[in-house]
Structures are given as C-alpha cells and as structure tokens.
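fyi for ur records
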Amino acid sequence: MIEIPSDLNPALVPLAFLLGNWEGAGVHDFPGSEKCNFGQEVTFTHDGRDFLEYVSHTWELDKDGKKVRPLESESGYWRIDADRKVEIVMVRDQGIAEIWYGELADQKPQIDLVTDAVARTAAGGAYSGGKRLYGYVKGDLMWVGEKSTPDVPLRPYMSAHLKKVADLKEWAESLPDDMPDGVAFFNPDGTPYQG
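which gave:
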C-alpha cells in the first residue's frame, strides 16, 4: 500500500510510492570492470517543499553476501510537474553531476529517465550519459540503469530489487499511549527497544 504523508507537497503525490527507506541487492556489469553482485540502500525523503531528496549507497558483495567495498554513492533532488514530467539533479561520488528528465507512466508507478546533461571533474572518468527505469512492483522498488561512455555504447550496467524497510522508531512513536501493560518492543537484533 502506498502511503501519502499529510505534509507531502501536493505536487509530489504522484511520486509518493518512492518515499521511505529501501534495501536490497542487484547486479553490476559493465566493460572495464568486474561483474559483481551489490547491496544497496536508498532513501527518498521530503520536507514539505516541491522535491524529494534522494540518497543511494551501493557496495560490492562477496559470494556469501557480505560487504566487500563501496561501489557507488549518489544523491539528488527529484521533481515532477503537472504533466507527469520528472526532472532530477544528481551528483555521484565519482565526480559526476547529471540532469535527468523523464516521465511517470500513465496509470502505473513507473518512471523512465534519460540524462540531458552530464558534467565531470577530471577524476570523473569516461561517462557520456544514461537511462534508468524505476518501477514499484507489488510493494517493491525495482530499477535498471544503462550507461554509455565514449568507447561503449549505451547498455545496461546495474539493476536492483529493493524492499521497503520499516522505521521501527517512527512506528513505535505512533502507537497510542494507552497500550496494555506487558507489551514489549524489540529491535531487529532481538534487544529491547529503548525509544
């Protein structure tokens, strides 16, 4: 179920399916780098203004699913207009800044994006543009990214399947004060919740 916060800017209601904390895993595969599985944490938040704030961290996973090293980090701001056109400004840890444009599909929570502008620092490496597809499928967030360089034509390079993560502190704070005695709350690791 998609929840729409009461303080969400009305312009952002079509993007409400993105809100929250997401975690999952995917595959990274691009010429010039070793193919690997990766873990990902994504957060979409809002503060009442007309944009969503986006932060993503990925890291390489070993064959046992343990973190090996950071892979990519990016952050940015997502907006949508009355015609369902989406625009994003994004910065990556690799020295790349991008402007993305796209559209929210009609009657379904799916966003197709393409880069409109790419700026790179000297450390930014070869990168000339990309495409992304985000979709909300049965309560999960899935995405696939394509990229191109001067030497490699546009091709898929990352995709992931993410599950929404409950914010236990926020959930516990929303409970009524008149809960029956003897109710205890626990953190995911089994330790008592201290609030």
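Strands lie at 20-28, 36-45, 52-61, 67-80, 85-92, 96-104, 110-120, 129-137, 140-148, 155-165. thats all i got for now
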